[in-house]
Amino acid sequence: MTHQNTPSTWLRPADEPDCVLRLDVTVCPCPGLQVSVPARLRYHRSDPYAVHLDCHADLEEPITWLFGRELLAEGLNGRAGIGDVTVRRSGSDPELLAIALNTPGHTAVLYTPSAPVRDFLRLSYRVVPPGTEYQHLDTGALLHRLLDDGPPAHRDRPQPE
User: Fold this and answer.
1) pTM > 0.85
2) The domain containing residue 50 runs over which residues?
């Protein structure tokens, strides 16, 4: 339901992010070569624990990494994460944030200024304050999706008479 006096900028489709930060990240594919890559951080209250990082955001289908909002916050203040995504302040410039994305046999380290990322997180905290994420989870929809997407054996099982 919408109210006629509600500004249209306040109306947001359900699948649109609540917070978006467009940024250029710098990648160093080899010593002496730096490449600027358009990227985007997204936060959705419907996925309250996660942050989406879209690399090559100018492409029709960007490469998206999903990781914890808390991981990003911890990385702004020190080193955070193990495994596929790690976040830390750059050793050479504390005003830069280094986000390492790891796949088997490959690692890409993205560098971006930390101040806009900190502002992005502050905005996400206004949307969903830390510690209240569970209140934004639609557990009914999640359960329904799990049951609908379950293995065929579960769906085709004969019902008791």
Assistant:
1) no
2) 15-147
